[in-house]
From TrEMBL:
Residues 63-86, 117-197 are annotated as: Disordered. It comes from Diatraea saccharalis (sugarcane borer). Pfam families: MADF_DNA_bdg. Residues 177-189 have a biased composition (Basic and acidic residues). This is MADF domain-containing protein. Residues 119-152 have a biased composition (Polar residues). PROSITE patterns: MADF. InterPro entries: MADF-dom (IPR006578). It comes from the Eukaryota. Coiled coil: none annotated. Residues 14-112 form the MADF domain.
Length: 197
């Protein structure tokens, strides 16, 4: 697998334009993006194109090349944004030297970060309320098992920090144990001598 920098500008331009024409590989909100068959066809087209310069090209090779191109563009984009945020004058704003930066502009709106989804936000029913069917009915008991295995009642999630009083109690208990002296025969002898004096 050779480095992208070893490819000619002409080939990379054609490769990027071909990639742009295959939204199944980059346009997240299109129907084609979630169609596995269209995605496989699109990868096959890019593999054939890459085989012009790299005869042993595979799908893995193509994805690595695409990721490399997009990663380089993201890094340059970040430098530009950081330069703008810094309050630099128009003469000092970072200007990219990445020649294919403009060619990959079509992927900009596809670089969205997904919001995390929490399954702790929804209300959980206690396990005792899962079923109100008759326990003597064999069919209802099999349904209960099926439901109870798919619906879980999670205990409340703790923030990870213990209450301040619990921590204080633990620390004071440890301190008491450290301060407690365990008497041995030498301590007893010393107390005996001190008593006689």
């Amino acid at each position: 697998m050779s480095d992208i920098r070893s490819y000619s500008k002409e080939f990379l331009t054609q490769f990027i334009e071909l990639y742009k024409s295959l939204p199944a590989l980059w346009k997240i909100k299109s129907k084609e993006y979630s169609d596995r068959n269209k995605k496989n066809e699109a990868y096959h087209i890019l593999i054939e194109k890459l085989k012009e310069v790299e005869p042993n090209a595979t799908r893995d090779t193509v994805t690595k090349k695409i990721n490399s191109l997009r990663s380089s563009r993201r890094k340059e984009q970040k430098k530009i944004k950081d330069s703008l945020r810094s309050g630099a004058s128009t003469d000092d704003i970072y200007r990219t030297s990445l020649w294919y930066f403009e060619l990959l502009e079509f992927v900009d709106d596809q670089e969205t970060v997904r919001k995390p989804v929490s399954n702790f936000d929804s209300e959980q029913r206690p396990s005792s309320q899962l079923s109100t069917t008759n326990s003597n009915d064999p069919q209802s008991s099999s349904n209960e098992v099926g439901r109870s295995s798919t619906t879980r009642a999670f205990p409340p999630r703790h923030s990870g920090k213990r209450g301040a009083s619990e921590v204080d109690d633990t620390i004071s208990a440890i301190g008491k144990r450290l301060n407690e002296s365990k008497e041995d025969s030498h301590d007893t002898f010393g107390r005996n001598v001190a008593h006689k004096l």
